[in-house]
Amino acid sequence: MAVGPEDTGKSPSGVQTPPSHSSSRNPDGTHKCAHLGNQLPAQQVLDTGEHLMVPMEVHPKGALWKFLLSGAMAGAVSRTCTAPLDRVKVYMQVYSSRNNLLNLLGGLRSMIQEGGVLSMWRGNGINVLKIAPEYAIKFSVFEQCKHYFCGEQRAPPFQERLLVGSLAAAISQTLINPMEVLKTRMTLRRTGQYMGLLYCTRQIVKREGARALYRGYLPNMLGIMPHACTDLAVYKALQYLWLKSGRDMEDPSSLVSLSSATLATTCGQVASYPLTLVRTRMQAQDMVEGGAKLTMSEIFRKILAEQGWQGLYRGVTPTLLKVLPACGISYTVYEAMKKTLGV
After folding, report:
1. How far apart are CA 254 and CA 233, in angstroms?
2. Is residue 26 part of a domain?
3. Under a CB-based contact definition with an 8 Å cutoff, are residues 54 and 2 in contact?
4. Of 175, 95, 82, nearest to 137 (Cα)?
5. Domain range spanning residue 127?
6. Residue 29 has pLDDT above 50, yes or no
7. What Cα–Cα distance (Å) separates residue 244 from each residue in 20, 98, 241?
8. What's the predicted TM-score (pTM) here?
9. Localized where (predicted)?
């Protein structure tokens, strides 16, 4: 998930803990569930390479750049380690059809036969390169919107956090959508097709026009809300269940935090996956020989007519397979970077 600095009130294990009270309510009369956002901080530090994730909370105390740098490094390492699964996901999304029902092993075999083992990391360069602007824009907008809607002191409740986080993600994606298109093209490129990122950009603009850099923008925007709603709702539900269980409430382990965030992230990706698939197909239409330039609704209808509703989830297997390692790697690197930078 998005990167966010931790508050004070940490346990010896480094996990934030709310005050301990025997009753179900705090001294001010509010239910303890109101403080759940501080109890499981792992959701703030995970990077699975999926751009629809919304920021949760940023406390700009101390050097914010250290937290952003830690998050960027965590994302870079995580995305590089899981790049083969990401590429086979895109490959299955674009090239799977009624006559070519690619599976995970078939996709991996096809890519290795075409370009060798190193071809599994095609597109990873631009995927890592876009982390810095994506994080910087997303968190800057989140902080400005949070202050506008919630003031300087009050932490946003669920509804406002959802609104502000979704708005930040939408603005961020509007600005970096060209990089998303380039990432898709570089990921799918054949051996020798593009001589670099700038060459790829020039070829797209020359052959398809500058508007091609915003292919897939509509499903991209529409996918933010189901992803954010599902992600945050599942995370809140897991927090509530943990609080209700009463087990080690004052110090939930890092494993509990990481597991909760990973499950919430997975549910968010599944909820928005059909729109993610359509977005990728729109971005890659010029890569498919003889492919017509279809609109979002036309692609939906074509997939449903040829493959049924299952076709809307082509490539979901590698997507889900990369969640756990991506979350584990990004969490570990993020904590190591914070320690190195003295955060």
Report:
1. 20
2. no
3. yes
4. 175
5. 36-341
6. no
7. 14, 48, 5
8. 0.81
9. Mitochondrion inner membrane
